[in-house]
Amino acid sequence: MGGRGAGKTRAGAEWLRWSMIHGRCHRAALVGPALHDVREVMIDGPSGLKWIEPLKCRRPHYSPSRRILSFDNGAEAHVFSAEDPDSLRGPQFDVAWCDEIAAWMRGQAVWDTLQMGLRLGADPRVMATTTPRPTDFFKGLLTGPGTLVRQASMAENAENLSDGFVAAMQAAYGGSALARQEIHGELLEDAEGALFRRQMIDAARVSAPPMLEDVIVAVDPPATSGPAADACGIIAAGVRDGVAYVLADASAPGLRPLDWARRAVAVCREVGAREIIAESNQGGEMVRQVLESAGADVPVRLVHAQLGKRARAAPVATLYEQGRVAHVGLLPTLEDQMCQFGAEGFRGSPDRVDALVWAIWALLQQGNGPWVRVLLSALILPDP
User: Same domain for 207 and 334?
Assistant: First the structure.
């Protein structure tokens, strides 16, 4: 396991390539979070299996229709998505490479099915490469029998990264929890003082939402624009029977106003939202104008926060504890920020959490009992 840019993908690809071209293994499973990830990262990426082979004539050939990567000695690597555990039923292997395993939506089910197929050869093995996340599944893998763990930091691979990138990341994030996990590759438990806990997020996670009664997109615009600007928080969510479902996190940093507005409008159309909720503290009526200029064809409702970020987020954390909010699939960057927000040493703007709070407020403030309405409406004021 390692931080971003630590060389995890290259290590996994080199390990599997050596096993295949030297005849140790002949039939491999390549498993990533989704089929697209396997193709674009594990096979065709700059550190993927095709491009690390120095001899062009020996580079493996990928057949998209068969989802098989063929080596010149006859060895084959078969492609699978961690979204579909049943696709691993039937095939058998003598080796597997699993990428970003800590981010697998159905990790335990996929892992269990894969293990039953590792029945070829004298010594079947698995290489798992990932940035760590403290899920029960991943923590169980680390302590399982026969597991050998290696940890790598971004700094250890600095010579293969852009000049100054590591120093810039260290200067920006320092010793924060985000840096420890994403840069140094440390496995962190819930940060002390954080409002949200992974256990309560995982407990209410669903693979697909029900038929929703209402869908909105919430936007928390950054105060500035440009490469150094905070991210624009963009969260899509819906509601059914008093439970909010977080559908997507489309937040992105470094965008100009028209760019984040277009991004929000695109998400709105993708999820079929009936309304955009946007914070107006930083831009006032201009926020509405930018969204409308970007093509917003649904109402834009401006809201104004009257309390601090932690105070606004606290009642939403309570709703999570009560099972009133569920995440659809994995939203790793949002969830990482949630589990660090409020903890000692948290740095930066909780842009994603801010947008999440707007979304939950908009969906649950109406018709969900007096306690919920009072709790949420006391923290946020609609603009006149």
Answer: yes
